[in-house]
Predict the 3D structure of the following.
Amino acid sequence: MHIAKPPGREAMILTLSEPRFDTYVTECDSDAERAAELYGWNAAISAAFMLPAHFAEVSIRNAVADALVSTYGPEWPWETVFEHSLPNTRWPAYNPRGDLISTRSRETTTGKVVAELKLAFWSSMFTARHDTRVWSEQLFTVLPNSDMTKMSELRGRIRQDIEEMRKLRNRIAHHEPIFTRNLHDDLHRMFDLVTLRSPETSQWVRELETVTELLHKRP
């Protein structure tokens, strides 16, 4: 990480707002210079996390898509049986069925639907409601690189990992602090999700990512 001298407190408040900057000032025992350095580091590592998160999300959604093709056919987004297998929850809760219907109304191919569905949709696929139709036959086929042998345990772990990644990504998207999280665990969850699909790709991601380096440079 490039070392740059941060601006003073007044400039930071002018740029960020006092409440936002004060979160970092409090963390740094009222030292404004250290707080500015922490803010810069938080922004840098937030950006760095997008690379492993990218690979983790794409790996998982492609695995789910493969399982859905095997279960419901290549046009699964338009399959009524699949649509009715999804929860139709009310706002403000996330609605998987509504997300699918809305997305397929805008897109004309399965590939485009896969690319546009929310991460929450892919997370929702790793619930017990899909065990019988999808995961009992497909989980270890589309995600073969696990040391777990019980389908429900692996499926539950994947959902938990996706949800943690989703929380982190949401904070990053809203430019919120992530320095209070266990970022080592967050990174390794992403590695694990990619490994389930392809250990070779996971190794490549490990060589590409810069999160590890930044973790050692926290102010």
The mean pLDDT is 96. Residues 147 and 154 are 9 Å apart (CA to CA).
